[in-house]
Amino acid sequence: AQKVTQAQTEISVVEKEDVTLDCVYETRDTTYYLFWYKQPPSGELVFLIRRNSFDEQNEISGRYSWNFQKSTSSFNFTITASQVVDSAVYFCALSDPYNNNDMRFGAGTRLTVKP
Amino acid sequence: EAQVTQNPRYLITVTGKKLTVTCSQNMNHEYMSWYRQDPGLGLRQIYYSMNVEVTDKGDVPEGYKVSRKEKRNFPLILESPSPNQTSLYFCASSEYNEQFFGPGTRLTVL
Predict the structure, then answer these.
(1) B40–chain A Cβ distance below 8 A for any pair
(2) Is residue B2 over pLDDT 90?
(3) End-to-end CA gap in chain B
(4) pLDDT of A15-66, one tens digit each?
(5) Nearest Cβ partner of A43 from B35, B49, B104?
């Protein structure tokens, strides 16, 4: 069975601090996709990244970076120099590439960035 | 513009009054899903559909129905809503493992 664990329920930081959101996953599949979504206070889900299980390269996009480690089944997300606009709930998700509908989400981490 | 639309966006209703939340996508995707989001539980899949007239249960299907008569539409039906169905609902369509989510429907059942 597929499972995603986001152990951090809530994180609070002060603006300009770096923050890492943890994501640990479980799957028996050798091929899978991992995702991160942002849910701002307005409620919509904003796609951030999709990573194929065969691509372990870390990714950087502006202040965002992702560390994918198959050895520890983790796909952690780091925000560098956090800003108030980063305040949101962040979800990590795992999907089966052979079944578009089998997508499992973590419980989410609420990030609050204080000015 | 590629998008998934849901209506209504907000709904307050009473126990037992049947309601339908509509979902429509303009990307000609075969796969569509419904999720509910609850605090501390993330998003959980209610039902999904792999094509017209093909639907199946997700993880939390009790109390819900769906239909897929046309490729673009995938309505979620609550025949007799109860307070435990108060939640934020998302419709999604997908292809090649890229999920497109609707804006969400916040439902309150009193």
Answers:
(1) yes
(2) no
(3) 36
(4) 999 999 999 999 998 899 999 999 999 999 999 999 999 988 888 899 999 9
(5) B104
Cβ A23 vs Cβ A16: under 8 Å? no
For the stretch A96-109, pLDDT in tens is 877 766 789 999 99
Token representation of residue B58: 């997700």
Compute the average pLDDT of residues B21-33.
95
Number of other residues whose CB lies within 10 A of the CB of residue A85: 9
Contacts across the A-B interface (CB distance below 8 Å): 52
Distance between CA B83 and CA B106 in Å, rounded?
13
Chain B residue with the nearest C-alpha to that of A33: B97
CA distances from B65 to B50, B60, B61, B96 (A): 15, 11, 8, 26
Q: Which of A4, A9, A100 sits opposite B97 (nearest CB)?
A: A100
Q: B43 pairs with which residues across the strands? A: B37
Listed in sequence order, the residues at least 6 apart from A78 whose beta carbon sits closer than 8 Å to its beta carbon are A18, A19, A20, A21, A64, A65, A66, A67
